[in-house]
Amino acid sequence: MINRVAIVGAPGAVGRELLDLFAEGRLPAVEVKAYASHAEHGTLLAHDDEPLVVLDLEKEVDPFAGIDVAFFFGDAEAARRHVAEALRTGAVVIDGTGAHVRETHVQLTIAGVNWRRATDAWPLYLVPSSLATIAGTVLLPLHQAFGLRRVAMSSYQSVSSLGRPAMDDLFEQSVSIARGQEPIPVMFEHQIAYNLIPWIGAILSDGESTEEKEVGYQLTRLLEVPALDVSMACVRVPVFIGEAATVTVETERPVDLRTAHETLDQVSIITVVRDCTKDRLDPLRAGLEENVLVGRVRVDAAVGNRLHFFVVADNLRRGSALNAIEIASRHFA
Q: What's the pLDDT at 29?
């Protein structure tokens, strides 16, 4: 049973989403300890209609004593310093910061598609990035059905993956433009309102961005195919919440549309949109639902082992917080 949880990075966008999910009864009647860096300590959040004060993780003595589940989101450095400490106290740790993603002995977990229970001796779960979670939810069952040998993906990622300050920046830029004023970017290299930025993260010497390299790596880990050919292009779009991607996969075995649809229909956290002219397939709809939406699924007319599709989901909820809660619930089931 889960009685007490800790959220490291509680004031962040995903931390607040976790609290919203608690309020909806996803982990009912839990006692919450909210932690953050010194700069954010003292922030007031809400839990069970009561104020929840964010504590300075670095100043707390035994911050994970009596904690059943410790969620880490946002602050990778805090995860590097404190995940082992939380595990030693007996907490189940769910780390979504990316700090330990290269520890290949620990599985990246999407609860609805590749669940495996961690050992009681070292109960650490790694949550993939939101984009890797959203895309991986669809790619994993397709890989099991057809075998994937190549993935090519272009992503369209909202500003919320950078947290609440980035959402505030998009809002302020939009207001400035509406008032006829020059927008002043704070969180972005260039204006993001009414615009696109054709990379995410830093540009590396080979021209690839850090986001593209990281998501590609995480997909090879999720699919457990280290040599998988993955090519990425990540684009920042002026949307508050939601991440989408156009994806092309090449398969080891011939693929047909009916089997592809049936394969995806069997995954409870996927909703297949067969006709996007009648049913919406966009971030606005994704923000109203909890499933990963996939549509425009089609077999390449020229190549029988090539499949194209479009995928979209709420990056804060389905791509991050809800996956973490589902992992915790399954561990204690």
A: 66
